[in-house]
């Protein structure tokens, strides 16, 4: 299979062995992959993958399941997105079925590829680490970022009013359209 690797500041389209699909895993024929800061840092040689993780770029992807390992409840042909330890920028990827989500109705595979990393990060920080309870208020820095946008929508869905800090009035309007109560432009008053 072909895959993108970040090697010494270059992106290389290289041949990679096709990984085996084991117990509880699924093989996804990748249609789209998200591009994250970690991918850019890995390409620059500043963020090596952890030992044992794929050298192939891509922490999230979306596509269609082409093979199902024993013990997985997924079906061949399911449209899914997945959170990965790497390897999403390839023709196919094998991942634990527990790291796979169905593509939400109405979203393209390209749109769904951008969901797993930001929503997982927002969920972890808001509801697992901070143990946010319904009605509690939230201040989100970088509200217009991918994680910030996901956090705004999660706050809205779970009954948590949120405010944001952003870099421009356009970004503030974007955050308010997503559900933020309001916010501040971080450069206002800093002449």
Automatic annotation (TrEMBL):
Keywords: NADP, Oxidoreductase. This is Alcohol dehydrogenase catalytic domain-containing protein. Residues 6-190 form the Enoyl reductase (ER) domain. The lineage of its organism: Bacteria, Pseudomonadati, Pseudomonadota, Gammaproteobacteria, Pseudomonadales. SMART domains: PKS_ER (SM00829). Pfam families: ADH_N. InterPro entries: ADH-like_N, ER, GroES-like_sf, NAD(P)-bd_dom_sf. GO terms for molecular function: NADPH binding; oxidoreductase activity, acting on NAD(P)H. The keyword Nuclease does not apply. It comes from the Bacteria.
């Amino acid at each position: 299979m072909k895959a993108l690797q970040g090697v010494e500041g270059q992106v290389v389209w290289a041949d990679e062995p096709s990984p085996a699909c084991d117990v509880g895993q699924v093989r996804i024929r990748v249609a789209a992959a998200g591009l994250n800061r970690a991918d850019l840092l890995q390409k620059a040689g500043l963020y090596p993958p952890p030992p044992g993780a794929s050298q192939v770029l891509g922490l999230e992807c979306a596509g269609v399941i082409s093979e199902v390992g024993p013990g997985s409840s997924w079906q061949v042909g399911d449209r899914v997105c997945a959170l990965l330890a790497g390897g999403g920028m390839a023709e196919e990827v094998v991942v634990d079925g527990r790291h796979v989500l169905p593509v939400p109705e109405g979203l393209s595979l390209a749109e769904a590829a951008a969901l797993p990393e930001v929503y997982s990060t927002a969920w972890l920080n808001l509801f697992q680490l901070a143990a946010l309870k319904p009605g509690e208020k939230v201040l989100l820095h970088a509200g217009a970022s991918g994680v910030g946008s996901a956090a705004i929508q999660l706050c809205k869905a779970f009954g948590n009013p949120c405010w944001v800090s952003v870099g421009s009035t356009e970004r503030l309007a974007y955050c308010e359209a997503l559900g933020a109560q309001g916010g501040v432009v971080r450069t206002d008053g800093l002449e």
